[in-house]
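pinned: reference chain
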Amino acid sequence: MQNFYQQFLSLKGDPTSIACGMAMGVFVGITPTIPFHTLMVVVFGFLFKINLTSAYLGSWLVCNPFTIPLLYLGEYQIGRYILGRGESELVIREYSFSALLQLGWDVCAPLLIGGFVLAVLVTVPAYFLSYRFISAVRKNESHEICSADTP
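pinned: its structure tokens
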């Protein structure tokens, strides 16, 4: 987490671009489209002209080996609820897009719908938190530089 923090603080660009990148990366990272995350981050980054590094960091922050099982199970349950399906146990042995497709539409539909809903819900706060954080850090750094220049 310390490495993530340092990388985030060292990003170049304006806070809006960095926050948009982080939010887009979080959105992509939450969706259950693992083999396409990097491609999606790059394509969306160029399309929307946002900070690609920030987008990649956002994607990795929410989608990493520690969070994937929790995300997928949560997304599946959200999707089942939205679709009006009852409770059922989901067992995923491999966390890849092709393995999920092999589980069939009964699993993929709730997973994709739940993933999209969760991504939308988390993306907006990710933008505002990132924007406020990077703006505050940069403001603090500029005060430190100004106070170091004055005798």
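why pinned: The chain has a mean pLDDT of 84. The helical segments are 2-9, 15-30, 37-48, 52-62, 68-83, 97-102, 105-149.
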